[in-house]
Amino acid sequence: MQALKERQSTRAFGPEQLSPQVLSNLLWAAFGVNRADGRRTAPSAMNRQEVDIYAATAGGLYLFVPKPHSLQAILPDDLRAATGTQDFVRTAALTLVYVADYAKMGNSAPEDKLLYSGAGTGFIAQNVYLFCASEGLSTVVRASVDRAALAKAMRLRPDQHIVLVQSVGYRAR
Ligand SMILES: Cc1cc2nc3c(=O)[nH]c(=O)nc-3n(C[C@H](O)[C@H](O)[C@H](O)COP(=O)(O)O)c2cc1C
């Protein structure tokens, strides 16, 4: 109840980086494995688990690998500035980039792929909102992103579609 009460979007971020433990907990809350059969903290249509979470930090771009719960280094570049047009995106410690992998979505119709991956991303983003509320972190989910430019910078495959991004960090004091 308390986390729901405090859930909100905030757009002012301090310079502190997230500790590895906080980042680990955040990603587990977002879309980690919470059952022995590999199912996750957020639902996905037909359990296809098509949404991948990339973490853009000052130290580079990483892919969250839910099993075994680790980060895979993708690029050494700081891509945070490329994740949006608003000024704060440069200062937030972390941007989560939610990427739908249509290759995992079988023969669903194109409009269903869009709907299911959008809904799936929404569940994940709300998990992040509630985790941030519980930890005193700032966060805001964002659609204002140049998807084509960011996909190019991230070197995504044509089957990978950026759905939304979400800034996370400590509150500005
Ligand atoms: C799909 C979606 C896209 C959004 N895109 C942006 C965005 O690009 N930039 C931004 O600052 N906030 C964005 N927001 C956050 C909303 O502005 C915010 O949720 C709304 O004003 C309500 O405020 P609250 O989250 O504090 O309740 C987005 C929210 C959603 C659900």
Description:
The chain is 29% helix and 25% strand. It contains 4 helices and 6 strands, in the order ααββββαβαβ. Strands 3-2-1-4-6-5 form a 6-stranded antiparallel sheet, with helices on both faces. The longest helix has 26 residues, at 110-135. Bound molecules: flavin mononucleotide. Flavin mononucleotide binds next to strand 5. Residues 8-9, 11, 86, 140-144, 164 line the site of flavin mononucleotide (FMN).
Q: What would a concise description of this structure say?
A:
This protein has 173 residues and is α+β, with helices and mostly antiparallel strands. It has helices spanning 2-6, 20-31, 110-135, 147-154, and strands spanning 51-57, 60-65, 70-75, 94-101, 137-142, 160-170.
Summarize the SSE layout with pairings:
Elements: H1 2-6, H2 20-31, E1 51-57, E2 60-65, E3 70-75, E4 94-101, H3 110-135, E5 137-142, H4 147-154, E6 160-170
Antiparallel strand pairs: 1-2, 1-4, 2-3, 4-6, 5-6
Helix pairs in contact: 2-3
The structure holds flavin mononucleotide.
The site of flavin mononucleotide (FMN) has 10 residues, from β5.
